[in-house]
């Protein structure tokens, strides 16, 4: 890895998400990163003839300046709020199944292979490298149920310099005999061991407000796979550790919902199951949320839990379309997830593209109908998602779901420099992006340059792939991308 050991300054185009409705564009931005990888200062719209004066005013006349070329720009790194590391090997298969049959026939057999630690090490090395090079700077990883394999996953994530939450699945019922935890006691004991192990990798510094790169996360697979005593024990563990994140699935598939209600008749709803056991709170990440009831939406909002929208998986496994606009109108935190291998791509770009399609389908299905009062109050429900909204969900939205909105997701003084240098020039080799035209950018006004940058961002979001991701930075360290030397 190549670290920034002293103040390093980037000069060029920077696109920064601000809200669901806006992002800022600075064609000639100076962005300084300090020696520990935090953003030191930002100055927008610095003309070339004033560059040295601005650097001198910051006391940085001797500092290294990395100048971006036309067709390159910096954006915050993508945040994947839901994916399964051990499922990458079977990515792109099993699309003929719905969720429960897919688990039985495709997913559980693959995950069971991770009992072999050598297989786990070889596979996870490839998995994490692919995820980083696809532009994901923060990732919420589900491991398998195996303690040692999940330790290996955490080791590799840490060694590669990615920011991540890593959890082993808790699953002690309704799983195959060859792939199930023997008891709830074993499940909880292994979970506690993993939490201690991951926290030993990068301990929280007493004088630092920033959280470690790699953190543990409680991972009850979903309610169906956990007995009452397991969920109760995990709830007790969570209550003793308020900073510990929780990730699980909810309301992905109608058959799953029906089975869950049968297993937990005393719960008010699927969301009520997690709430009943103390697992629904402000740092809970709920994947899918395709078929929530109004009461569940209100409960999730009241607990300030977040939702991971996984549109590719929801299409691929015929689960349905999550009404993300409704959740946004309610003020619920929403990010994007790839959900490999229900989803068939490790890149958040693919999730962005399918999130756009999903929102358009919702809009087409409803025809933007509804009462006049409800349509007036709805900003996002049953409407297309704009470019600013999609960009926000992939960055700030995901950061908020992970409880990291004060550290990553956008560029601001004091935040971590988790970023991508994007290249939409023809040399990147992506035939689906039409590269630079013959415009002489030197002679364009700032406003015209901003319009071109907005167009490049849109093309990247809808046609881009890993070939367009020149460099990936996490906490100021160059950790991946097309030009990264392994």
- Contiguous low-pLDDT stretches (5 residues minimum) are 369-374
Number of strands: 17
From the alpha-carbon coordinates, what is the Rg to the nearest angstrom?
22 Å
Quote the distance from N terminus to C terminus: 8 Å
**Proportion of strand residues:** 15-25%
Could you tell me the mean pLDDT? 94
Can you describe this structure in just a few lines?
The chain is of the alpha/beta class and 486 residues long.
Give an overview of the whole structure:
There is one protein chain. The chain is built from 15 helices and 17 strands. By secondary structure, the chain is of the alpha/beta class. The N and C termini lie close together (8 Å). Residues 73-479 form the Amidohydrolase-related domain. Keywords: Hydrolase, Metal-binding, Zinc. It comes from Psilocybe cubensis (Psychedelic mushroom).
Write a concise keyword list for the protein shown above.
486 residues, single chain, 9-stranded mixed β-sheet
Protein topology:
Elements: E1 2-3, E2 8-19, E3 22-33, E4 39-43, H1 51-57, E5 64-67, E6 72-76, E7 78-84, H2 99-112, H3 117-133, E8 136-142, H4 147-160, E9 163-167, H5 184-201, E10 214-218, H6 228-239, E11 245-250, H7 254-263, H8 270-276, E12 284-288, H9 294-303, E13 306-309, H10 311-316, H11 324-330, E14 333-336, H12 348-366, H13 372-377, H14 387-401, E15 419-423, H15 446-463, E16 469-474, E17 477-480
Parallel strand pairs: 2-5, 2-6, 7-8, 8-9, 9-10, 10-11, 11-12, 12-13, 13-14
Antiparallel strand pairs: 1-17, 2-3, 3-4, 6-15, 15-16, 16-17
């Amino acid at each position: 890895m190549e670290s920034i050991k002293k103040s390093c300054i980037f000069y060029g185009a920077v696109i920064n998400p601000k809200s669901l409705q806006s992002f800022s564009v600075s064609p000639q931005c100076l962005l300084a990163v300090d020696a520990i990888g935090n953003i030191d200062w930002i100055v927008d719209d610095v003309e070339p003839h004033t560059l040295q004066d601005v650097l001198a005013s910051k006391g940085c006349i001797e500092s290294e300046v990395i100048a971006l070329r036309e067709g390159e720009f910096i954006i915050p790194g993508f945040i994947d709020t839901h994916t399964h590391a051990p499922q990458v090997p079977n990515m792109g298969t099993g699309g003929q199944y719905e969720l429960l049959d897919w688990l039985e026939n495709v997913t559980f057999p693959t995950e069971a292979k991770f009992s072999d630690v050598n297989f786990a090490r070889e596979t996870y090395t490839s998995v994490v490298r692919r995820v980083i090079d696809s532009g994901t700077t923060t990732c919420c990883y589900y491991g398998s149920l195996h303690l040692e394999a999940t330790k290996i996953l955490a080791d590799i994530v840490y060694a590669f310099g990615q920011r991540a939450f890593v959890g082993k699945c808790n699953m002690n019922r309704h799983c195959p005999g060859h792939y199930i935890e023997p008891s709830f006691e074993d499940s909880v004991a292994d979970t506690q061991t993993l939490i201690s192990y991951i926290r030993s990798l990068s301990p929280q510094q007493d004088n630092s407000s920033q959280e470690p790169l790699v953190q543990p996360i409680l991972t009850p697979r979903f309610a169906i796979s956990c007995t009452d005593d397991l969920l109760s024990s995990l709830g007790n563990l969570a209550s003793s550790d308020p900073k510990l994140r929780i990730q699980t699935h909810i309301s992905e598939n109608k058959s799953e919902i029906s089975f869950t209600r049968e297993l937990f008749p005393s719960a008010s709803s699927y969301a009520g199951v997690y709430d009943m056991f103390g697992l629904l709170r402000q740092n809970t990440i709920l994947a899918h949320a395709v078929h929530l009831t109004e009461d569940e939406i209100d409960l999730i909002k009241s607990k300030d839990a977040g939702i991971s929208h996984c549109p590719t998986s929801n299409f691929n496994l015929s689960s349905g379309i999550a009404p993300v606009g409704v959740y946004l109108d309610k003020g619920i935190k929403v990010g994007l997830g790839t959900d490999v291998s229900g989803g068939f791509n490790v890149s958040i770009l693919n999730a962005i593209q399918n999130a756009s399609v999903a929102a358009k389908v919702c809009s087409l299905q409803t025809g933007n109908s509804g009462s006049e009062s409800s349509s007036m109050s709805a900003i996002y429900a049953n409407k297309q998602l704009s470019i600013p909204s999609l960009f926000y969900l992939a960055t700030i939205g995901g950061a908020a779901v992970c409880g990291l909105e004060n550290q990553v997701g956008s560029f601001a003084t004091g935040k971590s420099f988790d970023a991508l240098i994007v290249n939409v020039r023809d040399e990147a080799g992506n035939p689906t992006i039409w590269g630079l035209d013959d415009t002489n950018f030197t002679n364009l006004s700032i406003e015209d340059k901003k319009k071109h940058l907005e167009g490049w961002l849109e093309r990247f979001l809808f046609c881009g792939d890993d070939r367009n991701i020149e460099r990936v930075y996490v906490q100021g360290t160059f950790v991946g991308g097309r030009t990264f030397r392994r």
